[in-house]
Amino acid sequence: MVTISSNLLYIAFILYLVATLFFGGAIKAKKNIGEKKGTNRWGKIAVFLTIVGFISQVGYFITRWIAAGHAPVSNLFEFTTFFGMCLVGAFIVIYFIYRTPLLGLFTMPVAILVIAYASMFPRDISPLIPALQSDWLHIHVTTAALGEAILAISFGAGLIYLVKVIDQSKASKRTFWLEAVMFGLVTTLGFVLVSTLFSAMDYKAEFNWINKNDQAATIEYTMPAITGPHEGEIITKGKFEPLVEMPALINAKKMNSVIWSFIGGFILYGLIRLILRKRISAALQPLVKNINLDFVDEISYRSVLIGFPVFTLGALIFAMIWAQIAWTRFWGWDPKEVWALITWLFYAAFLHLRLSKGWHGEKSAWLAVIGFVIIMFNLVAVNLVIAGLHSYAG
Amino acid sequence: MKDVKCECGHVNPHGTVLCEACGKVLDEQSQDKSLLDMRYEGSARRSQTYNKSIVDKIWNFFSSVKVGVWLIVVTLVASAAGTILPQEMYIPPTMPAEEYYEDQYGWFGKLYYELGFNNLYSSWWYLVLIAMIGISLVICSLDRVVPLYKALKAQKVTRHEGFLKRQRLFGISENVDEQDIAAVKQRLKAKRYNIREENGDLLAEKGRFSRWGPYVNHVGLIIFLIGGMLRFVPGMYIDKVLWLREGETKVVPETDGQYYVANEKFILENYDKEKEDKTFEAAIDRAGMVVKNYQTNAVLYKRVGPAIPGEQPELEKVKEHKIKVNQPLKFEKFALYQVDYKLDELNTMSFSLTNKATGNTFGDVKINLYDPKPKYDLGNGYGVEVLSFFPDFEFAKDGEPTTKSRIPNNPAFVFKMTSPEVPKGETSFVAIQQTIEPLGDNQYKMAFKGIETKNVTALTVRKDLTIWIIVLGGILFMIGVIQGAYWNHRRIWVQNKNGEIWIAAHTNKNWYGLKREIESALSETKINIPNDQIQREKMDKEGV
Ligand code: HEM
């Protein structure tokens, strides 16, 4: 069952990749046909592949559920993959409302990155600790992920808006920040590639070190140590010696992964720039030439509007119900909870600005980007850096 | 203040921008705009009309969405600041917070502590922020909902030309015949539009109730916040921890001595990769040990008869329940939750009175560490007296033995051993792994024999009378957001002006949906699809 499950996920991943290429083809082909409305043959194939991939991933989800005996949303790998699945699902729904393949070209790569990122974490099926043994956990986590995914679609649409509207002929603050977003996406890819590379090399280096409670401990690095642990001493022979030693307070291993991701990101980004000879956003600009700005703005706003209630229900209300049962109180100011609140407040501000201050178009698109950054921060940084009750990862 | 009478005959309150009935522009400033600002239907809002007294000023401050958004953003940033370092309630209790932050995080930790960020979410200024959001919610909603309601109620079918012309979707068609109008009417009806007619003019409207969504959700939020505030009212909210050893029965705090709870057994189970499904093997290997269950087998008792001080209460069993995480024991307004535990806490210690030279023993003493007896008579002239007992022994700064707490973490005794050889007794200080004989060599000793331990469970006693208010607030909020987000208020005016058919349409959101509906309603008729005047303006600018 477990093997079937991971194969289904693998198939889904490949299908998403191929679908993205077809979405690209759909945009390229459209230019020749001209302003004909609707989707051409390439686009239809792309959507078809996306749907088949989605079904395959649902298959992964169900089979893993059966194997584990509980919904597979209980560790970082499972949750993040599920988020990727919701992203694809949300895209499919929005696609059938607005029928624009361009949205696929921008959201599918994000979903692919999310799933690839997820698979860098331990993929074992883990048993549930007592606090997690509740149906409310599963209801809460799935609805929250779905809400976040719908909100993330507005990021995709916002990105299209920005790529189109920002003048790439001269460098400005706007080009810089848009490029920073692109760099962020590339860095995620960098992390995936670097992790895959070292795990293919089966790199392992063990250290003795002194943790922050002054106790001796051992830690295993799976990437060459740039930042070594506090008073670390390498025990595995013939491995790379750390360049700098970190104080006990900082998790040197995670820091090391972050640095490697950035190295990977920079190299990758440098290569892309070398090939393109212009900013990534500038290179993408021709693709979005035919899209109507008001139309993407509307898609972006609609996805926030559809996603906000779902997010509120999943990430706040269901979370409170579960917390009340498992931890005796519905709210405990745990970092993960606080960041869900921050996300919620942010989108509330977004809606108010849009409604009353008339923040449409570009401003609204930037807000959609920031919102996505907050969501990803909650998903990644809060889990890995600020450990709390929810912290899945060790 | 003077009311304003429009040429259509409708009397509007002072401050009205668009006539409530026919939509004629009453306000000079909006006269020459090419598109109307349709927010709140151009109705007369108090905040836009008065700005004289102090009350006006405060009202206007809190009803401004700009202020509201600032409040939200400041709260957001403050909340984020509270996650940089752990809050005080999450730090280990080994050290006072004052030292902990500096010790763990250096100067930054010290600063964090001194700014009071260690308890940010209960700080006065954070609560003030939340309260201001609450006030803002009340005032901004009142400021808008009443005029909006009146304006929507007063609207007439026939609209002023200036109103129609300045809608975002607008178009004029000529040579339209009756059948076309009838067909459009039919199709709009099929799309569940509510249709009103007056002198050949037509207004199709749907989803007006969605306009109340924001107000419903704000009311929900206000109720939620009130619920949160009520928690500070004594008696509404109880949060106590009860430690119970196995076999112990204690009164449940805050129940007026009505209820007692016994801990029959505390169980901690780990996942066993041998027994459990093999699926988890890899994960268990990685983690080392994964807890499967924390459980207290509890019995709830109720006192019968009056409480008499000094006497054992008479108890009647109410129910048994296996309290697990996620499965609290509930009774009346109370719930008991599994929150903590301690395994193998010392419960009894036994010693043998032993002659040091011969090794012969003269009876055993078993001491209940929660209730040591002063004297143990072993017969035949042998006996042991407990002169002092330190359940949690340490040497104080002045070198005297003391106890840190009443929990027997590190018990120590001063015994007086009497025997036929030494009838007046020998004194011995006995602690774990050490014996001190203060008055020189003794003939006898208390040889350590063994210990018995018990598991201890910690239950949180919770009563929360505010919860239903909070639930109500949450439900209202959800209804409100869904109402406002998943439905839109759409209006289409089809009107006869100078022999031409004018079409204008407005929606509060989702223009795409409205346009598609209009397109399908007007298809195959001689009525032209109205233009999107905003998009036209943009296109002109973009030069597309
Ligand atoms: C955390 C707090 C708040 C939340 C979650 C919230 C939520 C919402 C939502 C979901 C909407 C509907 C938006 C839309 O349909 O696009 C809305 C509308 C609105 N909110 Fe809030 N709100 C909050 C605080 C405030 C505050 C403090 C003010 C005060 C200035 C305010 C004033 C308004 C106004 C004026 C509207 C528009 C009503 C309309 O145009 O019909 N809100 N709010």
- Structurally, how many domains make up the residues of chain B? 4
Strand residue percentage of chain A? under 5%
- Determine the most extensive contact between two protein chains: A-B, 60 and 65 residues
> What's the total number of strands of chain B?
24
Q: Which radius of gyration of chain B do the C-alpha atoms yield?
A: 39 Å
Order of helices and strands of chain A: HHHHHHEEEEEHHHHH
* Percent in helix of chain A: 55-70%
Q: What is the radius of gyration of chain A computed over CA atoms, rounded to a whole number of angstroms?
A: 22 Å
Q: Could you tell me the number of beta strands of chain A? A: 5
What oligomeric state best describes the polypeptide chains here?
heterodimer
Biggest sheet strand line-up of chain A: 2-1-4
Strand order of the largest sheet of chain B: 4-5-22-23-3-24
Task: Give the biggest sheet of chain B.
Answer: 6 strands, antiparallel
Shape of chain B: elongated
Q: What's the tally of helices of chain A? A: 11
Name the ligand types: protoporphyrin IX containing FE
Average pLDDT taken over every residue of chain A = 85
Q: Helical region count of chain B?
A: 12
Which spans of chain A have pLDDT < 50 for at least 5 consecutive residues? 32-36, 387-394
Give the overall shape of chain A, derived from the CA principal axes: globular
Highlighted features:
heterodimer; A: 394 residues; mainly alpha; 3-stranded antiparallel β-sheet; two-stranded parallel ribbon; 5 strands; disordered C terminus; B: 544 residues; alpha+beta; TATA-Binding Protein; 4 domains; 6-stranded antiparallel β-sheet; 5-stranded antiparallel β-sheet; 24 strands; 30% helix; elongated; binds protoporphyrin IX containing FE
